[in-house]
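Fold this: Acetyltransferase, GNAT family
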Amino acid sequence: MKYTIRHLAPAEYPLLEDFLYNAIFIPDGVSPPPREIVKQPELQLYIKDFGKKPADIALCAEADGKVVGAVWVRIMEDYGHIDDNTPSFAISLYKEYRSRGIGTALMSKMLEELKNAGFAQASLAVQKANYAVKMYRKVGFETVGENDEEFIMLCRL
């Protein structure tokens, strides 16, 4: 599949709400939550006023003439928060574009961007049952903490 990776333009930042919803891991046999879930404060911190903080960076994958995936980072006190100097990741692809290497390419490009911007590390939180854990390890993330449901992962740049 042909796709390009580029910076998400500020005019496209509203797309992050849809990608945030699509980033929610839904185990097999579980019904998806209502779309309004992204309005909850613990999820809004991923997207509210995106682009206004110094560490806000968003990349997207474009295929078939449309944005099909996004990866974005910001320093925030989210589930994967390490410290106030470590950006936390969010990534999402529309279902029909998953398992094609696009997510790995987005993650790798963002890690390169963060390294070039002078960051020493990046973090994320992921549910243990999420198939993406394997991809995160592949691009350099290591588990540095966990709870019953999630791994806290860190990539040293």
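Strands lie at 4-7, 57-63, 66-74, 88-93, 121-127, 142-146, 150-156. The two ends are 29 Å apart (CA to CA).
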